Amino acid sequence: MPLTDTAIRQARPREKAYTLADADGLALFIHPRGGKYWHFRYRLGGKGCRISLGTYPEVSLKDARLRRDDARQKVAAGIDPRSSPGTPPAIVTFRQVANEWDTFRTPRLTQGRKGSAAQARRYLDKDIIPLLGDMPIEAVRRTDVLKVVRAVEERGALNVAEKIRTWLHQIFRYAMVHEYVEVNPATDLDIVAAEQPPVKHNPWLRLGELGEFVRTLRAYHGSLLVRLGVELMLLTGVRTAEIRHARHDQFDLDKRLWSIPASEVKQLRKLVRLKGSEVPDYLVPLSSQAVEVIRAIQVFTRQYELLIPGRNDPAKVLSENTLNTAIKRMGYANRLTGHGIRATLSTALYEMGYPSPWIEAQISHADENKVRDAYNHALYVDQRRDMMQVWADYLDFLAATTKPFDSRSMPRYLP
After folding, report:
1. Per-residue confidence at 250, pLDDT binned at 50, 70, 90?
2. Under CATH, which architecture does the 207-409 domain have?
3. What are 191-220's pLDDT values in tens digits?
4. Where are the domains of the chain?
5. Pick the catalytic residue: 342, 377, 384, 385?
6. Is 18 a catalytic residue?
7. From the candidates 41, 329, 365, 413, which is the catalytic residue?
8. tRNA processing: present as a keyword of the record (predicted)?
């Protein structure tokens, strides 16, 4: 049945987008946000096509039918109305859809991935929207998308280019679901991506270098909270992201335990998607020294949600480079990174003779495709607490002596 003005006015947005059909290929697309868009569907050269004819009420039902009829005449003459003069331009731009996607995606990210939302927004505004923003979303072709990626690759930001490929793919998937486009022009871009340079592993310290680092760390005159954050990494083996996103409610200092939700742990996210709430928290037992560090931080930050809040906005996490920048300022550029602290700790614990399952559980390191390994992060809590106490005591010993390193002074685990 053809549409009426009354039916169009009374059409309300639903949880999901839907379409009201008129006749001869004309339809009204109702977006969940309330927007109403005229579309005309047709076939040309054996392929299904679609063109936007404007928004309602700016384009009335009568005018939409006139535009449809004009487009149908061109199709009958073998002319694609999308490329012919006089056709109203598509009004849904890439900018609109990209912003919709960003608004849709951001609140659905776990706490541990909020930084990804800010990063995506930054590169949308810097690299993607300036090139594609004003284009009708359905007019964007693979060559247009590739220009965005190539521009980023040419300045040497290959990791950023990889992320932009992913975001573009997600934006056009979103556009397809909401019927803004028929195809995704951002698929398979990895096939033509610039070759990544060899992976540079994060530098880490040998046992003979540990004492100097601990003394340097404890004498650091930069931000006290950042210094304590780096020290907490050294005492626990957690990732920089887990320090940055740590909240006060994750700590039970009486039990000397830090519980990090599995959804916020990089190594566990895939398992959480598969298994959901049955994946246990990442349990990080704490030495008495780690508890002291946390209490020292809480003196300054207890009124906030985050253990170490952002410098400019306490409601936001530290920037992802803050901890590594502090390590560089201590004189350890190209010698140590936050991730390298984890390697330093695990290597030392292996040298001390501790069992591999304890060490791998402490740093939440497992093959994400092996379910039997992926639950270890919640095991051996009492054993790991004793192990980390020995580790913390050994760091204190190294900090207190300036004698050359002697492996005979290193504690050994005896089963």
Report:
1. very high
2. Orthogonal Bundle (1.10)
3. 877 776 655 567 899 988 999 999 999 999
4. 5-76, 94-192, 207-409
5. 342
6. no
7. 365
8. no
DSSP 8-state class, residue 199: P
Whole-angstrom distance, CA of residue 376 vs CA of residue 373: 6
pLDDT, one tens digit per residue, over 380-390 is 999 999 999 99
What CATH code would you report for 5-76?
3.30.160.390
Q: Is 178 a catalytic residue?
A: no
- The answer to whether 387 touches 360, Cβ cutoff 8 Å, is no
Per the annotation, the verdict on 165 as an active-site residue is: no
Among 175, 224, 155, 210, CA closest to 402: 210
Q: Choosing from 150, 266, 311, 370, which is the catalytic residue?
A: 266
Q: For 94-192, which CATH class?
A: mainly alpha
Annotate 155-184 with DSSP letters as a single string.
TT-HHHHHHHHHHHHHHHHHHHHTTS-SS-
Residue 266 is among the residues annotated as catalytic for this protein: yes
The active-site residue out of 114, 173, 339, 413 is 339
Of 36, 50, 68, 239, the active-site residue reads: 239
Q: pLDDT digits over 24-71, tens only? A: 999 998 877 677 888 899 998 888 888 888 888 878 999 999 999 988
